[in-house]
Amino acid sequence: MKRQIPVVLVGLFGLFMIFQYFVPHESSEWIYEFLLDWTIIIGIFAMALGLWSLYRVSVEKIRTRKPAWGYNYLTLVGLFTMMLFGFTSQNGEAWGWFFPFMVAANLTLVMIIQASVTKGHRGLFLGTAGVCLAVCIVIIIFDDTWGFHFETAEGLQSTMFRAFFDNILIPIFATMFSLLAFFIASAAYRAFRARNVMATLLLLAALIVMLRFNPYFGPLSPYMSKASNWLMNVPNLAAQRAIIIGVGLGIVATALKVILGIERGYMGKG
Amino acid sequence: MDFSTFLWTTFAAFLTLATYSFLYKDNPFYKIAEHIVTGVAAGYFAILLWHNGLVPKLWFQRIDDGDWWWLWLNSSKPWYLIPAILGMLMWTRFSKKYQWVSRWPMALYIGISAGIAVPLEMSNRVNKQLYDTMADLNWANFFGQGTYAMFDTTSGLSQLLIVIGVVAALIYFFFSKAHTGLFGGVAKVGIWTLMIGFGASFGFTVMARISLFINRMQFLGGWGQEAFNASGTTPNPNYSAWYQVFFWLLALLVIGYAAYEIVKHLRSRKT
Amino acid sequence: MDIFEKLMKLDRRWVFLFLIAVCVVTYAADFEIPVLVEPEVEAIFNFVDTLPAGAAVMIPIDYDPGSLAELHPMTYAIVEQCWRKNLKVVFSALSQNAPGMADQAIRDISDSLKVEKEYNGVVYPPREIVNGVDYCFLGYKPYPAIIILSMGQNFRLPFPLDYYGTPLDSLPMMRDIQNYDDLACVIDISGTNATDYWISYGQGRYGFPLAIGVTGVSTAQYYPYYGSGQIFGIMGGMLGAAQYEQLADNPGLAKDGMRVQWSAHMMIIAFIVLGNVGYFVSRIRARRGERR
Fold this sequence. Notes:
By secondary structure, chain A is mostly helical.
């Protein structure tokens, strides 16, 4: 029951999908579309698992007072704020009591977390949370310059939602990845040595590719460009093609093993 | 650029610099940026799953007809309840006792993805690549044409090199036979080909990493021109008192932290 | 300790500072690097440029902010070209943070369409870009492979509503568009492995013309598909974007960054050479030491 049914299900659906590829009959297409549709819905629920674990991990870090635990409040407040922005939108130009509401709502969240991790004073934190929540509710009832939208996607176009994405998420992520530029420069200085034939070939190919758009070689410049283009389209193509074929065979072999129930690692223990 | 956009851009520039401070060493500014972005990205994803996932795929499918107190069983598409329940079963992952239930929806997903992978990966990664490798050699243009004949990618010689490279590299990947004798020699050609491939990848990687930094520099440069009015001849209308307050608050934060670090450093030197 | 040993033991933060200095100086110095266009990029430009007005092109935006530097310029150049040529564009976003990137790109490019501009000698009048008429943004769903396959059956299967929550059937341009058969081509701009899925599951199963714009890191690995004709063009990294901007006569951030790219490459090559010289010198010394 715990292990057999999943194996049977995997085999059944896997074999059907292979069969469907070769027999594109109307009825098999019909089932095919259904299965694709269902997988998407399951995927949505599966993806949400990650959000819940982020919440749990953050709260756990606060509870156990891990090093730098205080920053986890920022994570949780960021998460909660962004979700509120996504569910709300202004009705007109005015902001009304929207920002006081956001502060009160975030305070409610922090107080609830405090109450769940604290050893004493639970009543105090819960009480404060209750007061903050009451403030939120009062604002929601009496302020009609903005509103909640759960069924329609106004939130995706709200000013604050977009501002947070464009001015917090984009710059930090883009900068984090750009830190790699510095590490590759430092590695170029320390690690890339022509120790043997293979390393030399690697370095030479890299040099040709890096010099491809250098205009300061006079008549040689177009040759550099053509050479690197040839390098990409002939030796590189051969190497990558061998890798692609190898990976392709690997994927097919693993998929067959999964379908036939030989490979069951996806089930985990228990 | 209006004033609020300008303020936001200043904040974005601050966050960019805060992240770059990691290059010197790990510090509170970097930690703040890192933790904020984790939360905001998760919140963004949650909203996306709701508005782009649940609402169109489940809510909209059933709310069009049917009543929720019937759980939409009276709608025209009652079968949507099945994937919804399967999806919910994924959440049993958090329980130790009922974790095994989540294997059913997972089995559906894994079976389907494995099933679609077999024919498609075989035909598109393996077969089509092999067909192209086995194409007729271009004898009419064996040594290439034009000024750059040496680097003609369509010449017969280039095609022949591709065939040799692919076969040799595949032989290198074949570990069931010891790489000795003729077999080992061909395998050696294979690894050389692979090394050229990795070199090309590496050259492109350097380019990619640098361009990420260039983009941030362009962003900071654009902001700097706007903020300090470096290029303009007319005074910046955004350069108001509120902006000054905001800017100097951020700057004071940084200066304060730097002073703290210096004092700490000097004290540790004394002891 | 001689100079080579000292250089080898240098704190890496000096290397960082040196890179910043080199990049900032070249960024401040205003000169232009000529960009040589490669056939892989030209193929994409020519394909889009020769499409008749009213044709529909799909541009999946499958990248996160981490690769915006390389891929945003491509998106901006291609989409602007499409809209100036009165082509219709279908966007989708199959990566976690991609919808925000697409949303930003659509807003920015719509703004730049509001002014008259001249490209390659042709003057294009200003235009208002309307959602549902000039473009349709499908939005995000998880599992790219499954989504790409189901879009081949019908766009309404994975995306009954678009990103903004409007039913696809109520968008004028989507009335004639059911699946990939109704599109002129797909140009995937991607910083994730969604490209692999577009090739194997999209092009492989439904056979539409596919071109890709990818990050520099993964450019080299897609050349075999170009060789075998599974994709008709590749744009790789910022250089690919700069080439496209050059072809479209629409210089943007990529072309602007080329001079910094050039100087940084020179610096890194110098570092590699310096490191190797130090390495060989120390090896020769070690050998001499052995002989003694």
